[in-house]
Every structure is written in structure tokens, then in C-alpha cells.
Design goal:
Distance between the termini: 50 Å
Family: Belongs to the carbohydrate kinase PfkB family.
Order of helices and strands: HEEEHEEHEEEHEHHEHEHHEEEHHH
Largest sheet: 8 strands, mixed
Strand order of the largest sheet: 4-1-9-10-11-12-13-14
InterPro entries: Carb_kinase_PfkB-like, Carboh/pur_kinase_PfkB_CS, PfkB_dom, Ribokinase-like
GO molecular function: kinase activity
Strand content: 15-25%
Low-confidence stretches: 1-5
Protein name: Sugar kinase
Radius of gyration: 19 Å
Keywords: Kinase, Transferase
Shape: globular
Helix content: 25-40%
Number of strands: 14
């Protein structure tokens, strides 16, 4: 009996650059570290893994080098239950790398991604039917920043999704190591106009809109058609939907071990909430919980919880509140 492929299509499709991640295991910093921990990271693959762990079908694609780091990343993402059938292992360019050090409580990252396989992605190679068969397309400003051809991929993917009625989620993920603020501003604000869900941080918005006051940020966002989810408020996330501003409090973390990946965890929780049929505010609440759980362990994606773990956390909180 032949299965209906539409039933097996990913509910979430996302794409971008995932890189090998090496972290110095010495508090004196990278220069004096004798050992490095090997993993990988990438905003989009982190989100895909998070959504898959929360019980939904997720697909990630991008270009990796056909090298040991690339194959490690490919197998690891696939091993998390994420569909990687559209990912490419390129023989023409290497997998990008990032190296992290933690000194005096401060984390620094050094990127080696110029001319990487991911930076050579081309819009004409996108599988339109793959995007059209999903429910949500999630893209980030990181992919838009790595090369002109990658930016073209983002814009083309958003256009494909919108024409098919697929919702578009966009996290600007402003990275000033990749481009200047002036370069980023025009592109990211243009992409925000194509999104159904815009997921920036409050500090990012103040830079992009060149304003200081929160009220000025909200005024700018009110001109967008997108539902805006603003992370990084005072112990809360803002939801600006149809002119109504709602505050959704954070979940208190018992301990904070590593803040890296918190934003991706939030996005994964928010998207999974939408896929579960939750309202925007309910989905943001789930995103807040995911962010809180991620920062209590170390790793870009390793700490992303399963739906069973999230349910246990919610049941415990509800029991305490009663």
C-alpha cells in the first residue's frame, strides 16, 4: 500500500548554515587551551531539532562540505529525527567552523565560514514542492547575511511559502560579525515585511529602527502585517498582534549554565505551539518555557527538551500553583 507523501511531509521546513563547533575546555582561553570539545551549531538546525523533540515533523536543508565535520553534522541532525533529504554534501567547498572560548565569564566566538559550502547555496536549487508541502517555513537573518546567493535563497523561499499559503516565521538574528548595521537594516526590515511571524529581540529592534524607547519600537512594528514576538523584555516576551500588545512572563530558571541556544529554543517552542494549534500567546508561553529549560544545561542544541520533559515541567508548575 502506497503512503500519502503529504502525510509524511515536514510540518516545519527551515534551512541555513550549520557549522562545526569547537569549544575550548580551558578557562584561560583558546590561546592556551590544550583540548577542544567537538559539536556543531546553527540557528536553523537547532530550531529543527527542537521542533522534532517536541513531537513534530521537521525538515532542515543546507549545504555542508563533504568532509568529516559535514558528515558528522548531517548524521547528527538526521539522528534527531529531522528530515535532511534536501541537504547537500558539497565536494566543492568546506563546512564552516566556529570556535568558542569562555574567559572571565564571557563567551567569544570566532567564525571560519567564508566561502563555505552553505554560502554557495543558490535559489534556483530550492525544491519548491518541499516548502509548499509544509505548514511553516522558518528562516533567519543569519542565512541572509552569509552571501548574496544565500540571501536570494531566503527571499525566494519566503515567496514560495507565501504563494502556497505556508506561514513564514522570521528571526532576524542580527549578527554584526557578518555585516554592518547599515547593510543588515535594509535587508532585515525588508524580510520582516514578508513574514507572518516576526521574532526579533528588543535590543535588535532598537538598532534596526535606530530608536531608544520601547514605545517607538512598538510603533514601528505596528506598521507590519506580521504578528511580532519581541524577545528580551523585562522578564517577559511581548506579543504585538492586530494592534494589541500582550506581555507573557518568563519561566524562572533554577540555574543558568549556558545562555547560548536560548533564542533558538524559544523559536522551536513557539513554532511547535503553533503546530499544536495553540494561540499565539500560548505558543509564546511554550517558547518561554523552552528558553528557560535550555539555559539550565550546556550546549547549542543538546539541552533542547523533549515534549515529555516539557509536559512534566508544566505539570509540576501547575501543581505548585494550585
Amino acid at each position: 500500500m502506497q503512503q500519502d507523501t503529504a502525510l509524511l511531509a515536514p510540518e516545519l521546513v527551515t534551512f541555513g548554515e550549520s557549522m562545526g563547533l569547537f569549544t575550548a575546555q580551558d578557562s584561560r582561553g583558546l590561546e592556551y587551551a590544550s583540548t577542544l570539545n567537538k559539536s556543531f551549531g546553527g540557528a536553523e538546525s537547532n530550531v529543527a531539532i527542537g521542533v522534532a523533540r517536541l513531537g513534530h515533523r521537521a525538515g532542515w536543508f543546507g549545504a555542508l562540505g563533504s568532509d568529516p565535520i559535514g558528515t558528522m553534522i548531517y548524521k547528527a541532525i538526521r539522528g534527531e529525527g529531522v528530515d535532511v533529504s534536501r541537504a547537500v554534501l558539497s565536494t566543492d567547498a568546506p563546512t564552516g567552523l566556529m570556535i568558542r572560548e569562555n574567559t572571565a565569564g564571557k563567551s567569544s566566538v570566532y567564525y571560519y565560514r567564508k566561502a563555505s559550502a552553505a554560502s554557495q547555496m543558490k535559489a534556483e536549487n530550492l525544491d519548491a514542492s518541499y516548502i509548499q508541502s509544509s505548514k511553516i517555513l522558518h528562516v533567519t537573518g543569519i542565512t541572509a547575511a552569509i552571501s548574496p546567493s544565500a540571501l536570494a535563497c531566503v527571499e525566494r523561499a519566503m515567496d514560495i511559502a507565501r504563494s502556497a499559503g505556508v506561514k513564514v516565521s522570521f528571526d532576524p538574528n542580527l549578527r554584526l560579525k557578518l555585516w554592518t548595521l547599515e547593510e543588515a537594516r535594509g535587508v532585515l526590515l525588508r524580510l520582516a515585511e514578508k513574514a507572518d511571524y516576526f521574532l526579533p529581540g528588543l535590543d535588535e529592534l532598537k538598532l534596526l529602527y535606530d530608536v531608544e524607547e520601547d514605545e517607538a519600537v512598538f510603533a514601528e512594528l505596528s506598521r507590519l502585517n506580521a504578528v511580532s514576538i519581541i524577545k528580551g523584555g523585562p522578564e517577559l516576551t511581548y506579543v504585538l498582534e492586530h494592534g494589541t500588545l500582550t506581555e507573557v512572563p518568563y519561566f524562572k530558571a533554577d540555574q543558568v549554565l549556558d545562555t547560548v541556544g536560548a533564542g533558538d529554543g524559544f523559536c522551536a517552542g513557539f513554532i511547535a505551539g503553533l503546530l499544536k494549534g495553540q494561540t499565539t500567546v500560548e505558543a509564546v508561553r511554550l517558547g518561554n518555557l523552552m528558553g528557560s529549560m535550555v539555559i539550565q544545561a550546556v550546549g547549542d542544541w543538546e539541552a533542547l527538551p523533549t515534549w515529555k520533559q516539557v509536559e512534566a515541567k508544566l505539570e509540576r508548575k501547575m501543581h505548585i500553583e494550585r
